[in-house]
Amino acid sequence: MVIVKKFGGTSVANKERIYNVVSRCEEDLKKGHQLVVVLSAMGKQTDVLLDMANDINPDAPKRELDMLVSTGEQVSVALTSMAFAAKGIKAVSLNAFQVPMMTTSSYSHARLKKINTERIINELDEGNVVLITGFQGVDKYDNVTTLGRGGSDTTAVAIAAALDADACEIYTDVDGIYTADPRIVPTARKLDEITYDEMLDLATLGAGVLHNRSVEMAKKYGVQLVVRSSLNHNEGTIVKGETNTMERLMVSGVAVDKNVARISVIGLDDNPGVAFKLFHHLARYNVNVDIILQSIGRDGTKDISFTVEKGKLDEALAVIDRHRKSSIKCQSVSVEENVAKVSIVGAGMMDHPGVAAKMFEALFDENINIKMISTSEIRVTVLIDESQAERAANAIHDKFELELSRR
Amino acid sequence: MVIVKKFGGTSVANKERIYNVVSRCEEDLKKGHQLVVVLSAMGKQTDVLLDMANDINPDAPKRELDMLVSTGEQVSVALTSMAFAAKGIKAVSLNAFQVPMMTTSSYSHARLKKINTERIINELDEGNVVLITGFQGVDKYDNVTTLGRGGSDTTAVAIAAALDADACEIYTDVDGIYTADPRIVPTARKLDEITYDEMLDLATLGAGVLHNRSVEMAKKYGVQLVVRSSLNHNEGTIVKGETNTMERLMVSGVAVDKNVARISVIGLDDNPGVAFKLFHHLARYNVNVDIILQSIGRDGTKDISFTVEKGKLDEALAVIDRHRKSSIKCQSVSVEENVAKVSIVGAGMMDHPGVAAKMFEALFDENINIKMISTSEIRVTVLIDESQAERAANAIHDKFELELSRR
Asked: Closest-CA residue in chain B for A59?
């Protein structure tokens, strides 16, 4: 079998952890498997490098930032390769150039275009464990790129797809995917299985261990993932197309995201294209907008509220301000920063009407006011006061009895 | 003009120094010059990386060591490029892959084979300062290689040669090449000019700022070098084929090398091939031998003495011991560790008989005993007691009146 294993930054943070990676791989090698191991930068090394860059130039060119941070994974694969050698195991490290992992030229959030598997296969056939730098690529002009947050997961899934690997294992510092963040909901339970779509929603909502781009790619290419801990031998969570549970879970998990702020644009002209212009300008400045709510205002105007990441709030307000005299004519703009998104996700929702109502009932029982609502086929999200987020998550988790296994 | 500038590790050790590099380059840019800047890893970063490797695996594969340490220069060029951007100067960083700088596959001491100048020229023509990682290359299989000690100087010279650059400036933390190490000989004087051959001898003898490989390459391709400080605007020393001084200097400098040990192999059979076998075995284990002295021993045997680096002493003795029963039959082996090499170098020696005698006179006046002597056309080296090295260097420096300029 060909197995792709991905270890995150905490799993290679120091000598002891690096040797732990070698041990985990040895177990598979003894069974005769061929291994491709994708690694992130050690511990907080990416942040250390970004801090250095920020000290030199807070507005550094993205090309040079990618050139800089990509060294982090190269250090990881080289050191880990040395650890394999110390154990008498043949290993070779490859960076994005050496594979190559071809991407677009969008520095800091490049997308993978093509992985050449020839060298990987040759190295495997020569009996090597192949260690590959996660998170990074090269564009057609040989510039170094990075894939953005969660990029190493995406690298692992893409390699598993390109190699048609028999398994793709994502090692992290938690046991798998939980029904909720155990730090917020103490009764949270680890899921044995979850569908790509559920995982996507959980990831997007900030609750997931996996980044949504990696899950999207896994779904697209049908790569079955296992998310598990590098520190114990617990089973982990399988992420796949259809789960085997007798009955599909009505709700798989509860997610809380406090990294959110609400902007309300009040008294916009009620003309066609107003919403388009507003969000077009925001998109041009890479401000991702989440929940959007439009309501009729007074005197033939309309109000649009939406949420953005807290870190993008200032930028979003600046963009609106810049266009208030021209394309975004409005009476006022208000901001609410102390808010949180609480969401439930579950593929079973499609078959079970009344799931949203049950969630709202849980919040009503706790006397928690809902500020905004957004839904998809398999997700319900509410915006509430930030101080009530933990209480809301626990109440919802209890209401749907997520602490009980449905197997 | 196209100028290649090389800055060493101390010149990019921190933010302030990096901005100093930018300032030095700005002066040239204002004059309309195009700049290629070769950088080493920041400060002691290469040693930090090697320590990490040594902690993981003291016997790490050289391929992986090169993969690891090459990240050091990549960090330097990326951060420096950001500093240029902060000053509004267009710059682009290139690693060995991106140039590419093709080398042999000899990890940790690869030799440059070919530099493709197309991308460098394109980037210069687009108005960029081109920042290139020193010390590293790629072999034909895309593996990362490094050039060994002094590698960044070699990179700079090679690029200057490939581009047919108008100047190649080596920036360091000293003002240039001195007649002797000023820490040992207080009256040492900075040289305005020195020939490649003199510089080669000084470099080989451990006294030079430049590594001999870079000087060899400069000589081969006729690249005129300037060695100067990155911290002041003093003139520096020009290294070139023929110096312009009215009269060639009889002696250009005095060098002291304490990193040396003497091995004497006593009572070897006086057969043809004995010396060959001894040095052949040592060469196979990469033990570089310096001064060699052979003398007739007793009873039809011969004695061979030679010097090695102190760090190679144990290895050299082990090699000899391993072959004492077979090809290196001898009566005994003795070692002397407290020795030092003191050398004088000067292209003018060829025209001035009696230079060696004058050196020996200086030592005799100081009552310093000479243990071994070795000479070349432009160099005289003696081996003396380590404790007398400073006194010897000063006496010789005084004898040849090197503190006086001969211009």
From this structure: B86
